[in-house]
Amino acid sequence: ANYDGKDIVLSGEVMVEHEIGKMSADHMVLTPESEEQHYHFVNLKMDGNVKMQLKDGGQLFCSHADLDYLKSKGKFRGDVDHEYVVYTESCKVNEDKRMPLVLKAREMNVSLESNENEGVKVSRSSINEITANQNVTLNYNHDFVAAADLAVYRRFGSSSNNMAGQIDLFATSQNGTCQ
Questions:
Q1: Contact assessment for residue 30 and residue 39, using Cβ atoms and an 8 Å cutoff
Q2: How far apart are alpha carbons 151 and 7 in whole angstroms?
Q3: I need a labelling partner for 95 at 20 to 30 A (CA). Which of 7, 44, 146, 172 fits?
């Protein structure tokens, strides 16, 4: 571990608990909100074997991640060794049944949900939108499999009990993929 007065740099088998969930990686750079508040990280850069177990039940795996908590967004990407970003969640079908959703792409951008309490933003602990770019594949319980150049997943429910959403698939050119 290293602290330069601004950033905390961690290397090795790093694990961090954050408002959005548990994160692990080979290397992390954490930027606290202020010098006085070292416990609240607003910017997280992660490299190598990035794994995120989100509090809302989703999981995200990739090679590189940049999470900007102040702007409520994140960017995830693969590399030469691990090309794809993989997002998974278990979708509730009814009271007794859940089905897996797997979204893969070379790059994903996420927007974090901002909850407001009396006009003040208080929590950004769940993902409300994922934009997946480049070689996107979608697999819903092995019943529905699709491929596209671009996918946008808008989630309607943020609780782990109700993770309904809509996924739009697009080809980004005349000869692009959307099937």
A1: no
A2: 34
A3: 146
Q: Judge contact between 44 and 52, C-beta under 8 A.
A: no
Per-10-residue mean pLDDT for the chain, 179 residues long? 85 90 94 65 93 90 94 94 93 82 96 64 72 96 94 75 79 93
Q: Establish how many alpha carbons lie within 13 A of residue 179's alpha carbon, considering only the half-sphere containing its beta carbon.
A: 4
| Size (the chain), residues | 179
**How does pLDDT run across 135-169, given as a tens digit for each residue?**
999 999 999 999 999 999 998 765 444 557 899 99
DSSP characters for the chain? -EE-SS-EEEEEEEEEEETTEEEEEEEEEEEESSSS-TTSEEEEEEEEEEEEEETTS-EEEEEEEEEETTTTEEEEE--SSS--EEEEEEEE-SSS-EEEEEEEESEEEEEE--EEETTEEEE--SEEEEEEEEEEEEEETTTEEEEEEEEEEEES--STT---EEEEEE-SSTT--B-
Sign of CA dihedral 79, 71, 89, 54: positive
Query: What's the chain's Rg over C-alpha atoms?
Result: 17
Burial letters 96-113, b for 16+ CB under 10 A, else e: eeeeebbbbbbbbbbbbe
**How far, in Å, CA of 40 to CA of 33, rounded?**
6
Mean predicted lDDT score pLDDT of the chain: 86
